[in-house]
Amino acid sequence: MTGPRASDGLRAVLLPVSALLASVVLLVLGNGLQGTLLGVRAGFEGMGATTVGVIMSAYFFGYLFGSLHSPAMVARVGHIRTFSALASITSAVALAHAIAPTAAVWTVLRAAHGFCYAGLVLVIESWLNGSTTRRFRGRVLAVYGTAVSASWALSQALLILAPAAEFVLFAAVSILMSLALVPISLARVSTPSVVETPRMGIAHLYRTSPSGVVGVAAVGFCLSAFTGLAPVSGQQSGWTEGRIALFMTAWLLGALLMQWTLGSLSDRVDRRWVIAGASLASAGWALALGLGPHLGTPVGAGAPVAATVALVFAYGGFSLPVYSICVAHANDLIAEHELLPAASALLLVFGAGSIAGPLAAGAATRAFGPPGLFVLLGAVHVLAAAFVLQRMPRRARVPAEEKEPFVPVPRTTPVILRLDERGGD
Asked: 406: burial class by Cβ within 10 Å (0-12, 13-18, 19+)?
């Protein structure tokens, strides 16, 4: 009877949560499409790589600010009102990009979108926490993380639905953001209490896990640089919008498929070897993309599409999972009651790296053309690996029996961290 009862319990949890998951899928689809769309449309509007870097950096600044300050808004007006207001703003912001395609306006709009999107995700994650018992938290977290990653990958394919130079895709983003209101508004889930996440100082966290902090900062830097400037680099290389969409989708699918493989490996060996090895592999794939014949080859003139897709798939597969491995490494070194504060602090480090990434990538692309982005990414991955390797002799590896199990952690808001079974109640 244990099996059927457990199955019934999980079903009882997932049924109401399914509405929340539907809302987050729609949000991620719209948000993922808009990020890539703006990079491509910026080229049509004559914006340079440095300008695009500033615009994309504004999003991560707004997102970090929203993650920190949205809980106060929820406490004042409640979850439904907060979600409705922020979803309406993001829907309007998507259309405003098409109406006023200037760098100054886009920078403000991108920051506003980042702030609102962080608040929207925070509301959904608060609801997930309030709708899940500790018994099923790990499984709900796994389903949620997979839904977010898969939706982000799928969002890139939406770029081929219409030309980026037209209004249609901006309208599609607006529609997706508006539709995200429907499932959560009709969900039969009780309104949760406001979730406060304990904080930890970055300096204290660095003293505890230097490799974890530097690794997470490097991932944030490279992820934001890639998402912000890769579409621009592809467009400057003469790629069609379909090829850019394929390129970005392959990058995200690589991460989705490789996460558990690298995570499981890090459970069996010193995680720092996995962090350093994955970072060096990422550097190799990035440099192969930047220095090989994959950029600058006009479409229709023998451009090696399959080779490009394979390389970016491998790059995503080795680079993005490093975030969760760094979180797991930090968790191995801290007390159980500090798991949530540490993971929350790592998200702040990730956000700081994400703000810097597009700015540096924009400058590198302007100075060296499309290959500049990938050479920059390769250099950052090499530096991160070198830092981890030089730290290893200073501290013995964590014994296998003392390790926390690897868990793929979504890079969203600190609220979702409470679904991690290791964090206590």
From this structure: buried
